[in-house]
Amino acid sequence: MASDRQRVRSRPLEGGRVPRSALPLRTQGHEVVSAAGAVVPLRCVNWYGAHLRQSVPNGLDVQLVADFASTIARLGFNCVRLPFSLDNLHATEVPHADESLKANPQLRDRSPLGVFDAAVEGLTSAGLLVILNDHASSGGWCCSDSDGEGLWYTDAYPEPMWLEALGAMAARYRNNSLVVGFDLRNEIRRASGRVPSWGSGVAATDWAAA
């Protein structure tokens, strides 16, 4: 017979957005659960763009950050995966900011990471969960067999720089309780002659040991 604790874990939270009282989230087997053990269904959407050479999330030329957040919530999503590139952490200005941030002129003088901050703040202020996503090292579209981005590190960003970047992003948002997860790398795959492995013990390719 299932225990009361097991029954609580099998009962999903009701409603759309995840209340702060449910945080922090954790995993239990294949499920994401609340602090009390209730199953938390994640209904996520991807807001891409900051990982591209434009360095900011798509659509900020036509709509306010707050409008994006309210629309996402209104459509029934409770979670946003927000991609970035490691280039974002080092760039000091947004390329062609007058164009890419046309609808958000208050952000034009910010760095790419400053605009990313605004996106995170806008989403979480609307009660949405955010999952950070290290999409690529160098800004650009994923994916090709020759882009050099198949592993978690690249020639431009060796593993120590990747780890430093992950730590910096985690520290940056650690006090925002609605930033609940980190997708450590997008689509580990074969590229530029490098083939990833799992549990092989080969440090240069073993994603399980990274």
Walk across the major sheet and give the strand order.
3-4-5-6
Structural class: alpha/beta
Strands, total number: 6
Listing every helix as H and every strand as E from the N terminus to the C terminus, the arrangement reads HEEEHEHHEHE
Instruction: Tell me the distance between the termini.
Output: 41 Å
Spatial shape: globular
The share of residues in helices is 10-25%
Report on the structure:
The chain is built from five helices and six strands; from the N terminus they run H-E-E-E-H-E-H-H-E-H-E. With about 210 residues, the protein is an alpha/beta fold. The strands form two sheets. The protein has a four-stranded parallel sheet, with helices on one face. A two-stranded antiparallel ribbon has the order 1-2. Helix 2 runs parallel beside helix 4 (about 110-125). It is globular. The model is unreliable at about 1-10 (pLDDT under 50).
What is the compact description of this entry?
This protein has 210 residues and is of the alpha/beta class. Helix content is 23%, strand content 14%. It starts with a helix and ends in a 27-residue tail after the last strand.
